[in-house]
C-alpha cells in the first residue's frame, strides 16, 4: 500500500511499491488521460506534474511519491489551465491527440514559472515530449497566446 495525493485527493493504492506511477494512474485509478508511449522515458507521453515539476510517470516508482502531490490532465485546473485550453482550441493544436495531455501538462508547468516565455524557453520546456503529428509550431503559438491572455 502506498499513499499519495492525486489531483488534490488523498488516495491509497494497492500496487506494489515498484510499480511505475503511470500504471497506478491508468489501471488502478482509471486516469487514462496520461498516456503510455515508450515506457522507458523517451517519448514524454506519460508526463504529469509532481508538485510544480514535470515527471515521466513511466519512470517513477509509486513508492517514491508518498506525500507527493501528483496532477494529471484530469486534475489540471485554474487560470493557467483555462488559458491553455482556450489557446489550444483557438490555435487548433490537436491532431491525433495522443501526446496532448503531456503537452498541456508541460505547458502549464512552464507558464507557472514564466509568464512571458521566449521561443527558446518554450522549446526547452517542451523538448522532451514527442509529437509524431508535428503539432509543435501550433503548440508554440498557443503557449504564446495563453501567456498573453494571462498577463
Ligand atoms: S511512456 Fe513515459 S516517456 Fe514514454
Ligand atoms: S497530436 Fe498526434 S502525436 Fe501529438
Automatic annotation (TrEMBL):
<dbReference type="Pfam" id="PF00111">
    <property type="entry name" value="Fer2"/>
</dbReference>
<dbReference type="GO" id="GO:0046872">
    <property type="term" value="F:metal ion binding"/>
</dbReference>
<keyword id="KW-0001">2Fe-2S</keyword>
<dbReference type="InterPro" id="IPR001041">
    <property type="entry name" value="2Fe-2S_ferredoxin-type"/>
</dbReference>
<dbReference type="InterPro" id="IPR036010">
    <property type="entry name" value="2Fe-2S_ferredoxin-like_sf"/>
</dbReference>
<keyword id="KW-0411">Iron-sulfur</keyword>
<dbReference type="GO" id="GO:0051537">
    <property type="term" value="F:2 iron, 2 sulfur cluster binding"/>
</dbReference>
<dbReference type="InterPro" id="IPR002888">
    <property type="entry name" value="2Fe-2S-bd"/>
</dbReference>
<keyword id="KW-0560">Oxidoreductase</keyword>
<dbReference type="InterPro" id="IPR006058">
    <property type="entry name" value="2Fe2S_fd_BS"/>
</dbReference>
<dbReference type="InterPro" id="IPR036884">
    <property type="entry name" value="2Fe-2S-bd_dom_sf"/>
</dbReference>
<dbReference type="Pfam" id="PF01799">
    <property type="entry name" value="Fer2_2"/>
</dbReference>
<keyword id="KW-0479">Metal-binding</keyword>
<dbReference type="InterPro" id="IPR051452">
    <property type="entry name" value="Diverse_Oxidoreductases"/>
</dbReference>
<keyword id="KW-0408">Iron</keyword>
<protein>
    <submittedName>
        <fullName>Isoquinoline 1-oxidoreductase alpha subunit</fullName>
    </submittedName>
</protein>
<dbReference type="GO" id="GO:0016491">
    <property type="term" value="F:oxidoreductase activity"/>
</dbReference>
<feature type="domain" description="2Fe-2S ferredoxin-type">
    <location>
        <begin position="1"/>
        <end position="76"/>
    </location>
</feature>
<dbReference type="InterPro" id="IPR012675">
    <property type="entry name" value="Beta-grasp_dom_sf"/>
</dbReference>
Amino acid at each position: 500500500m502506498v499513499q499519495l495525493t492525486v489531483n488534490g485527493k488523498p488516495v491509497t493504492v494497492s500496487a506494489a511499491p515498484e510499480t511505475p506511477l503511470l500504471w497506478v494512474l491508468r489501471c488502478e485509478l482509471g486516469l487514462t488521460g496520461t498516456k503510455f508511449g515508450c515506457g522507458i522515458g523517451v517519448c514524454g507521453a506519460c508526463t504529469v506534474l509532481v508538485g510544480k515539476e514535470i515527471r515521466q510517470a513511466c519512470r517513477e516508482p509509486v513508492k517514491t511519491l508518498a506525500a507527493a502531490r501528483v496532477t494529471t490532465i484530469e486534475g489540471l485546473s485554474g487560470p493557467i489551465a483555462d488559458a491553455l485550453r482556450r489557446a489550444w482550441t483557438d490555435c487548433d493544436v490537436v491532431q491525433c491527440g495522443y501526446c496532448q495531455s503531456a503537452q498541456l501538462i508541460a505547458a502549464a508547468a512552464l507558464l507557472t514559472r514564466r509568464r512571458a516565455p521566449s521561443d527558446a524557453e518554450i522549446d526547452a520546456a517542451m523538448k522532451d515530449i514527442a509529437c509524431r503529428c508535428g503539432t509543435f509550431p501550433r503548440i508554440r503559438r498557443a503557449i504564446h497566446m495563453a501567456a498573453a491572455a494571462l498577463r
